[in-house]
Amino acid sequence: MENVLVLAYLGDSVYEVYIRKYLIDKKISKVNNLQKEAIKYVSAKGQCNLVNNLINNNFLTEEELNIFYRARNHKTNSHPKNTDIITYKYATGFEAIIGFLYLNDNIKRIEEIINFCLEV
Fold it and tell me: Which CATH number do you get for residue 93?
């Protein structure tokens, strides 16, 4: 799979399922509270912070960094109104890593990355 935006599209969904399960496992039972907590992790700003932490801690492999940079640098003309373009591109890069790993059946690595992010 070469299209990094398709990887990000898939990665967004995969990552969100992991976060939802994590929050449910924390015994948060009200949907409104689940949504408020989830935003901390699945928003562009939250993902941007997480991927910066992964990079600053040298947690990503060279291959994962390559996917991240390709997605981050992909030319796009639009972004959500609630975030700036740089934050959005970093979040897209993070999601592309998750999508890439998922398509390659590397669930163990997805879980390592997500666990690292949740410990921060």
Answer: 1.10.1520.10
State how far the alpha carbon of 71 is from the alpha carbons of 11, 78, 88, 98, 119, in Å. Answer: 12, 14, 11, 12, 25
The pLDDT of residue 65 is 98
SS (H, E, C) 54-107: HHHCCCCCHHHHHHHHHHHCCCCCCCCCCCCHHHHHHHHHHHHHHHHHHHCCCH
Token representation of residue 37: 């907590």
Domain that holds residue 14: 4-119
Q: Which residues are catalytic?
A: 12
Q: What is the pTM of this model?
A: 0.93
Domain count, the chain: 1
